[in-house]
Each structure stands twice: as C-alpha cells, then as structure tokens.
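Sequence, structure tokens quoted for completeness.
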Amino acid sequence: MPIYEEKRLHRRKSILYLAIAFLIIYMPFQIGSRELRWDEVYYSQMALEMNLFKPNTFVHGEVISGNYPLFPWIASIFFKAGATPELGLRLVSVLSVLAMLVLAWEAARRALDLQAASVSAALLMSSILFVDKSLDGYPNTLGLLFIFAAWIAWFMYGPVRGSWNMAWFISFLFCGFSFYAI
C-alpha cells in the first residue's frame, strides 16, 4: 500500500484555480490604467477611424498600407461599446489569451484527461512571453490565437477523427484570419 496517493482533480476546482491565476497574472480589470505606448497609438487611431462595414485602416484621414484590418476592426467594436482606447486595444489581446487557454484546455482534456488539461492551460498562461506581450495592445496575440486554433483544428479533425478535408478547410480558414490580423 503506497504512503501517498494523489487525489483526482475536480473539474470545478481546477477551473476555479486557473481563473484565479488568470485574474492575478493578467489583471484584466487594470489593463486600461497604463498610457498607450507610441506604437499602440497607431492601432488606437486606426480603430477609432474604422468603419465596421468597410474595414480600411485610416490614420488622420490617410489610408495606411501594410496594416491588416482585423485587429483594429475588433478593437473598434470595443470602442463603439464604450471602452477607452487603452482598454479596448489591450482587451483584444487579453481575450485572445483567454481563448487560447480554453482551446488548450479542451484539446488536452479530449486527448488525455483533466490533469493534462489543467497543466496545459497553466503552462500556456504562465509563459513569460504571453505575460509580457499580451498585456499590450498589439495584433500579435490575436494572430497567434488564429494560428493556434488552426493547429488544434488540424490535429483534432485530421489525425484524430480522420476527416482530412475538414481539417484542411478549417485550418486554412483560421490561417486566413491570422493573415488579416498580423
């Protein structure tokens, strides 16, 4: 008989611990308290001048070429809902991290078990790269969300379910969204 035996994880308790860790690490309610960095201002101005039905990137009335419209378009939705420029830009990045955590959780839970889901979400959340880059209002985190979603979809539909046509279609769709984000 072993001296120590690990207890099985409970779904609610592990989700609660991960949610508390997310709130402590990313502090989504205080992301709008810092001023915008110099290059975040361009994305903020693009989002403020964005038309929702014609997503061109304008800054002070001039079309900006070389920028992709998905990130400012999503930020402009938050702006139109009443968010400040600081909060609106950074909320897109933090919600992208939250969506990646949910994707990692669900993929690991389906592939293995609840313990693997908790570990994968915790490792992804506590990555120093995520903590450093996702608290700023840049489109990199949104693009990474779409690339990660494409990878998970390709893995779940291709090798696991054997539906390769669906795997490639959904992966290309998410990669297309990523192209318009970064």
